[in-house]
From TrEMBL:
Family, similarity comment: Belongs to the short-chain dehydrogenases/reductases (SDR) family.
Keywords for this protein: Oxidoreductase
PANTHER family membership: DEHYDROGENASE/REDUCTASE SDR FAMILY MEMBER 7B, DEHYDROGENASE_REDUCTASE SDR FAMILY MEMBER 7B
Protein name: Short chain dehydrogenase
Gene Ontology annotations for the cellular component aspect, listed alphabetically: membrane
Molecular function GO terms recorded: oxidoreductase activity
UniProt-listed Pfam families: adh_short
């Protein structure tokens, strides 16, 4: 899809990947609707973009009533003849800790932001998304590789992977494409110092938000249904499907280190 003058709703807009993506989408000539929790950050981001006056902001807390806030705004715009061409479900969070160390609040928050919010927003979008249109869900390599310290995160991202696959098949012939892109570890504030140190120690490669943003744009333009970023992560995804014991053996060798860092205080 040509992104010029397309109206794109972006959740998690002020996060690491979100802000990098907003900058690059604006350079492509897209008109953005930036959704996030803090109005000040949204305004700062909007004003930093090319053609700032063409973009809009929605303050929406996806842990509370943010989905309804976004839906109401989009329905109102539809009544005015303003349609959304693309929805990017980018908002998310993670907690690096073993399940026994997580609080109920941690688990609930991850489930709400990573799984329920994109599912509910996608459902609402079916009533106001322009045809042809795109829903793009941002996942993770961990949606296909269960990794210690990220049990809840893996579960929520795996759910969005299968949700995207199922919805794409449901919407065959409707003019709406559902895409799924899974980055590997990305250098954002979601990863605290422990995670950064552990990735360095284990030799895990980390991508920049700008690189991930550029790959998201490439995915949108080509309308690629499913993409996994990073090597050897893409290989491990395939291996985990075919020979999970091989991946388990590799991760088992890292288990002592992972446990050490997951147990550290932030």
């Amino acid at each position: 899809m040509d992104l010029k003058q397309k109206r794109i709703l972006l959740t998690g807009a002020t996060g690491g990947i979100g802000s990098a993506l907003a900058i690059q989408l604006a350079k492509q000539g897209a008109y953005l609707i930036l959704a996030g929790r803090k109005q000040t950050k949204l305004d700062e981001l909007k004003n930093s973009l090319e053609n700032a006056s063409e973009h809009l902001c929605i303050r929406a807390d996806l842990e509370a009533d943010g989905i309804e806030t976004i839906n109401t705004a989009c329905l109102n715009w539809k009544d005015q003849g303003i349609y959304i061409d693309i929805v990017i479900n980018n908002a998310g969070t993670n907690t690096f800790a073993y399940l026994a160390q997580q609080t109920a609040a941690d688990i609930t928050r991850e489930t709400q932001l990573n799984m329920l919010a994109p599912i509910l927003l996608s459902q609402h979008a079916l009533s106001w998304l322009k045809r042809p249109g795109i829903i793009l869900n941002i996942g993770s390599t961990f949606s296909a590789i269960g990794y210690p310290g990220y049990s809840t995160y893996c579960a929520t991202k795996a759910a969005i992977h299968r949700f995207s696959e199922a919805l794409q098949r449901e919407l065959t012939g409707t003019g709406i494409q559902v895409l799924y892109l899974a980055p590997r570890a990305t250098n954002t504030k979601l990863n605290d110092q422990r995670v950064t140190e552990l990735n360095t120690l284990l030799g895990n490669k980390t991508d920049s938000p700008e690189y991930v943003a550029s790959e998201i744009i490439a995915t949108l333009k080509a309308e690629t249904k499913y993409r996994w970023l990073g090597w050897p992560e893409k290989l491990f995804v395939r291996l985990n499907q075919l020979l999970p014991s091989v991946v388990s053996s590799s991760i088992r060798k890292q288990h002592t280190r992972i446990t050490e860092f997951a147990s550290k205080s932030i």
